[in-house]
Design a protein that fits this description.
elongated, mainly alpha, 1 helix, single chain
Length: about 20
């Protein structure tokens, strides 16, 4: 697994949310 910072994790969550909404 890759080491992801907390900020990066939050960004990914937001990105996934946008993709699901789109």
């Amino acid at each position: 697994m890759r080491k992801i910072s907390k900020e990066g994790l939050e960004l990914i969550k937001q990105w996934e949310g946008l993709r699901l909404e789109a």
